[in-house]
Hints:
Blueprint: H1 14-23, E1 25-29, E2 32-38, E3 46-52, H2 60-77, H3 79-82, E4 89-95, H4 103-121
Parallel strand pairs: 3-4
Antiparallel strand pairs: 1-2, 2-4
Amino acid sequence: MNATYPKAEKLKKQKHIDLLFSEGKSVSKYPLRLVYAPLEENEVPLEFGVSVSKRYFKKAVDRNYFKRVLRETYRLNKDLLHSNLKQPYAMMFFYQTKERLSYAEIDLKTKLLFEKFVETINK
């Protein structure tokens, strides 16, 4: 699997973001939460975005750091998702704690969260 995060995979369309918040379902693995919604026909199998709350990290530097870490863990582990998708999805990844977890901890939680998501959609 190509371990890149191209522009086409970035969640940018307001229509898809609104769909996530209105009809999306979620799975969690503390402190991460993944909100997802199936899309109608789409060019790419997965559109992915990340978010870190201003409530937990007041400084933009801190929020940007965790967003970079979340994007990187997605990039390295996205083959877990792509190999199991039967239709296109829009997804958003949330970091939901004040704790400053290490990269290794976030990477482990990401893998567990992606496995939980795959189990959920294959039921």
